[in-house]
Design goal:
With 446 residues, this protein is an alpha+beta fold. Among the domains are: 152 residues, Roll (FAS1 domain), CATH 2.30.180.10; 148 residues, FAS1 domain, CATH 2.30.180. The protein is built from 17 helices and 14 strands. Strands 2-1-7-6-5-4-3 form a seven-stranded mixed beta sheet. Strands 9-8-14-13-12-11-10 form a seven-stranded mixed beta sheet. Strand 11 and strand 12 form a beta hairpin. Helix 3 packs across helix 7 and helix 10 packs across helix 12. It is elongated. 26% of the residues are buried.
Length: 446
Amino acid sequence: MAHHISCILLLLISLTIFSSSSSSPTSQINSNSILIALLDSHYTELTYLIEKANLLQTLENTVSKHNITIFAPNNVALERNLDPDFKHFLLQPGNILSLQTLLLSHVIPTRIQSGSTRFKSISDYHLHLETNTTTGEFMVNQENVTHPNDITRPDGVIHGIQKILIPRAVVDDFNNRRSLSSITAVKPEGAPEADTRKLKKSSPEKPGSPPEIPIYEALAPGPSLAPAPAPGPGGPHHHFNGDLQVKDFIKTLLHYGGYKEMADILVNLTSLATEMSRLVSEGYVLTVLAPNDEAMAKLTTEELSEPGSPEEIMYYHIIPEYQTEESMYNAVRRFGKVRYETLRLKYKVVAQEADGSVKFGDGDGSGYLFDPDIYTDGRISVQGIDGVLFPMKEEKEVVPVEQVKPISMMGQPRKGVVEHRRGKLLETACWMLGTFRNHSRFTSCQ
């Protein structure tokens, strides 16, 4: 009987412990966690990429449920042995999903030591672990584990590896972005056969060639004229996906941080996002000088309340050519001042070198190149500036009224001679003397 009662008490205690543990699904990470050890370890480059990809919370949730195994590349593998273009691709704000996939491929939600078996990482990347029978080294996906069991904690283990593990999906994303295959021109459709002896057709344009008409003629007319956009040169077959590219760069502005007001004006306050996507679809290239939120906050209500003023302000910040931070800085270094055409007709934005950077505009309506190359895809370039640009008011030159100069007998103006008005009596006397050719003797008659 006593044994039966003790079993019931043990069952009740176990149920109480189970209910209390299930009520708090995410336990607090203690100081002896494998994540704390990773942040304090010598894998500084890996830690930097994890923070850059916003994966700390994801790893904390995983550690609270499972033991984890991290295959950590050393700093040399991430600094020197990694392709610079590939690393630049991973650090771009628009490619954060590729960076997260790459990093999570090195984390397995279980604790493993050694052996020959297959595991699946958090990002569903298959890892094959084996031990080399010849050398006895521990290998993962045919890469040597240089420091097995480098850091061990109750909730996980870190193995040091010599090279970074790159999933095929991330490689495909990099190749597609590098070759611009998602936005390059498609093959033109075959034209119907025609009798060239009767009708001679011009050769078709190559896909991706620049449009024939100027960008100002392709711009849609203002709301007061007509709501429909003007016909563009591209025809019904658009070679570029302008909608996708404009959405991509606006999403990049939001992820980058500090340019929410600019994105809001492009999408909500005006229809410039739609207009830009149509222009890009027809083959035009654009460079956007994007003021940050601090600069946009300085705009007064009067400057934005006038009809059409937001559109005019934004049109002055869009250059109808593709420029990067390097190209603009080289131009101002070489030529001093460079005037760029803008989508606001008859107004140009002046760029010049100042304090080792590029300065746009003069006076209060000026700004410096603050965040270079926020978004560059070959069609749209976004450069962050720290001020809202306004065109300088043209000052009218005051033309001085020309004074009437005295004219000599030969019809030429006299220099340094003050013409005095003579009396009528003196003129009559000089005329009479002139008839006798004696007027030259008197200085008053000369």
